[in-house]
Design a protein that fits this description.
- By secondary structure, this protein is mainly α.
- The chain has one domain (13-145): AhpD-like, CATH 1.20.1290.10.
- The protein has helices spanning 7-10, 12-26, 32-46, 49-61, 66-71, 83-96, 105-112, 117-139, 148-151.
């Protein structure tokens, strides 16, 4: 396997700005528990091992029930998610893998029933943010768990 570059070291100013954007997303109108589900689902869909690992640990630290993190991949069949969480997960999926003809009106309307205008906009930015991180970490094959101490993820007590 080819060794990949460290994108943080190669583009420190861009990393810093994107990290600042991530900090702003954390202050948005979408509750932490929903953001945890969204980041985990997008990371699963994108095959980002580093981010799946990170977001499972973050969710545990934030108090998420372990079974719900396992059910994110099967959220449509699971009974563990609220209508609002289901809408967020559906919005995550459609914006992570945008269909050829865009976002269907029916889905937009269903999601907008659960989220105010600002919340829907904030949710969209949260999905944009995690998809950006996923793309960088997939491209450069960032190893899961390598930033646990730096991000305080060792507090999850998962190994």
């Amino acid at each position: 396997m080819t060794q990949r570059i460290n994108y943080v070291q190669q583009s420190p100013e861009l990393f810093k700005k994107f990290y600042e954007f991530s900090g702003a997303v954390k202050e948005c109108s979408i509750e932490q528990s929903t953001r945890d589900l969204v980041t985990l689902r997008a990371s699963q869909m994108n095959g980002c091992a580093f981010c799946v690992d990170m977001h499972v640990k973050e969710a545990k630290i934030h108090g998420e029930r372990e079974l719900r993190t396992h059910h994110v991949a099967i959220w449509r069949e699971s009974t563990l998610f609220s209508p609002r969480e289901r809408a967020a997960l559906a919005w995550t999926e459609v914006l992570t893998h945008i269909p050829e003809h865009g976002v269907p009106d029916e889905l937009y309307e269903r999601v907008h029933e659960q989220f105010s205008d600002q919340e829907l906009s904030d949710l969209t930015y949260a999905i944009m943010e995690i998809n950006g991180w996923n793309r960088a970490n997939v491209a450069f094959r960032t190893v899961p768990g390598t930033a646990d101490k730096a991000f305080g993820l060792d507090k999850a007590n998962l190994s």
